[in-house]
Design a protein that fits this description.
single chain, alpha+beta, Butyryl-CoA Dehydrogenase, subunit A, domain 2, seven-stranded mixed beta sheet, two-stranded antiparallel ribbon, 12 helices, about 15% strand, Acyl-CoA_Oxase/DH_mid-dom_sf, flavoprotein, flavin adenine dinucleotide binding, AcylCo_DH-like_C
Length: about 400
């Protein structure tokens, strides 16, 4: 692996940082979170039109930029720094790769160009709280995790030449505002029990979407209730979704790791800036050795997480399953950086007006959705056979 970034990657990150610095300050972030969508639609349009960010990793044949997924993962470091309120994760990291991998030629041609130009957003709807399981981040990913209608999850049944869905999914990222829902549903009954993915229009008759109160307000979530909603099967009935979901999960882990590193780095920067200004006993509190030791520990954790995240971004296109470990390292670093930031900011760090607590909530929220950290590591150890033959159960 060559740790140096290419000129194109440097340019993407520089341009993105400049844009987010202008358009995603603390006041703009708060205003976006208070909107019904929970994100800044104008910012999303700008990112699509000026940078082509939603389609960065989509082939040119479908209107994308055609870059490697590595470039999108590295760009995530900048969106993480700003806690950018956009549907990038739900649309470009979770939904678009699945449509590209599983969709028919007609479905790709119809949907991907609209996803890449920012005119359509998408959300992956799976029963709560099994998103990490569906993406094979904390387990093998197989099994009947999609549930079945009233028993939990979503049930799919044939209706003439099409399909109807019944059930619900909660904690769906951007599910209340997405124009397209990618719904994981259980079908086949007891004989041919399996999970398939279906396309549902956001405004479909019988679909009720309600925004939920989330621990992390920068990751808007929704409860999606489907009452005999008309749906279109993604791909065909012979489609095997476990493999594509696992590969999407690997990429999502690398993306999230880079986002967490960016957030941790910014949280540390804000803390250092504050400690240079606040005085106690006639000197800046950042000059005290005990405080410097705490900051040094955070710095080491962030740099270690950055190395792991960069490697995961590089390896995601080479079939190496290291995203989960990188995500665990990055979430741990973000939690530490945010917690120390709150402590060292004193009482103001706990207030709603200050951004320090938003970084802590991002760490905790991502761990709830995609972790927890110990399960990410346990699954990685099991997959690598680390304890094989040692009589240890992980």
């Amino acid at each position: 692996m060559d740790p140096r970034l290419t000129a194109e990657q440097d340019e993407i990150r520089r341009t993105l940082r400049e844009l987010l610095h202008k358009r995603c300050g603390p006041e703009e972030l708060r205003a976006a979170l208070d909107t019904p969508a929970g994100h800044d639609r104008a910012l999303w349009t700008t990112l699509a039109e000026q940078l082509g960010l939603p389609g960065l990793a989509v082939p040119e044949a479908y209107g994308g930029v055609g870059c490697a997924r590595t470039d999108l993962a590295l760009a995530a470091e900048e969106t993480g720094r700003a806690l950018a309120p956009t549907p990038l994760l739900a649309t470009s990291v979770l939904a678009a790769p699945l449509i590209l991998a599983l969709g028919t030629d007609a479905q790709r041609a119809r949907l991907l160009p609209r996803l890449t130009d920012g005119t359509l957003t998408a959300a992956l709807a799976v029963p709560a709280p099994v998103l990490a399981t569906a993406l094979a981040l904390t387990g093998p990913g197989g099994g009947d995790w999609s549930g079945g209608g009233r028993a939990g999850g979503v049930q799919a049944r044939r209706a003439g030449d099409g399909w109807r869905l019944y059930g619900e999914a909660a904690q769906v990222l951007d599910g209340h505002s997405a124009g397209l829902l990618l719904v994981a549903a259980h079908t086949g009954g007891f004989v041919r029990s399996r999970t398939l993915l279906f396309l549902v229009a956001g405004d479909a008759a019988g679909a009720v979407r309600t925004r939920q109160t989330a621990l992390d307000p920068t990751r808007p979530q929704a409860r999606v209730q489907l009452r005999h909603v008309e749906a279109e099967l993604l791909g065909d009935e012979e489609t095997q979704v476990d493999g594509p979901l696992a590969r999407t999960g690997e990429f999502a882990a690398a993306f999230l790791a880079c986002e967490a590193v960016g957030a941790a780095d910014r949280a540390l920067e804000r803390t250092v800036e504050y400690l240079k200004q606040r005085e106690q006993f006639g000197r800046a509190i950042g000059s005290f050795q005990a405080v410097q030791h705490r900051l040094a520990d955070v710095y080491v954790q962030v740099q270690a997480a950055r190395s792991a995240a960069y490697y995961a971004a590089w390896a995601t296109g080479r079939g190496e399953d290291v995203g989960g470990l990188a995500l665990a390292q990055a979430l741990q670093a973000l939690r530490l950086a945010a917690a120390e930031g709150i402590q060292l900011h004193g009482g103001i760090g706990f207030t709603w007006e200050h951004q320090a607590h938003l970084y802590f909530k991002r760490a905790a929220g991502d761990e709830l959705l995609f972790g927890p950290v110990h399960r990410l590591r346990a699954h990685a150890a099991e997959e690598s056979g680390l304890f094989a033959g040692a009589g240890v159960t992980v």
